[in-house]
Write a structure and sequence with these properties.
alpha+beta, two-stranded antiparallel ribbon
Length: 216
Amino acid sequence: DENDGDTIWNTAVVISNSGAVMGKSRKNHIPRVGDFNESTYYMEAEDGHPVFDTQFGKIAINICYGRHHPLNWLGYAINGAEIIFNPSATVGALSEPMWGIEGRNAAIANSVYTGNINRVGTEHFENEFTSANGKPAHKDFGHFYGSSYVASPDGSRTEGLCRNMDGILISEVDLNLCRQVRDGWCFRMTGRFDMYRDLLARATGKGFEAQIVKEN
C-alpha cells in the first residue's frame, strides 16, 4: 500500500459479476506458526470486517488463518454476512484435523454459510530453509491437502473436494436458511455480547486478573 508506508497486506479483492471492483478484504490474523511466520512481511489488517452486498447475497472473506479465531467469523456475521468464504493455503501437518470442524462450527454458531477453500499440491523452493524447530532444513512446506467444502447454518455440509487434484465445487445455497436457523436457535438474540465486551475490555487492559475460584 503506497499510501500507507508501503505496507504489505495479505488481501483479497472482491469483483462483482458485472466486473466492477467492489473493494478489498485484508487478513486480520497473521500466523506465527512454523514455516508460516507471515509476520516477517505481512501486517495485521486494520479495516475491520467488511461485508460486500452482491447480487447473490452478502459475502465476506475470512482469509486463511483467520478461521482459527471464532470472534473473527463473528465479526463478519455481525456486519450482515450470509456467506463467509475462507480461502486458505494450509498443509496437513498443521491443521488438517481441524479443517472439517472449524468452518462447520462457524456456520452453525453464526447462522451463515461458509465456503472453506484450500489449495492442493506441494510447492518446492530452490533453496532449503529451516523452521527454527531443530529439524533438518527442507525445500517445501509439505502437502496442501485441498478438501474444500461448503457448510450450512443447519450443520450440514457438502462432500469435500480431492486432497490431491484441483477441482470445482458447485453448491446451491438457500439464503433463507440463515434467517430460519437464526430464528429457530436464537443464537444472536441470546448472545451475551455486552458481557463478552466487558470481559475483553478487562482482559486487554493492564492488571487483568482472571476470574478463577479456588478451593479454600
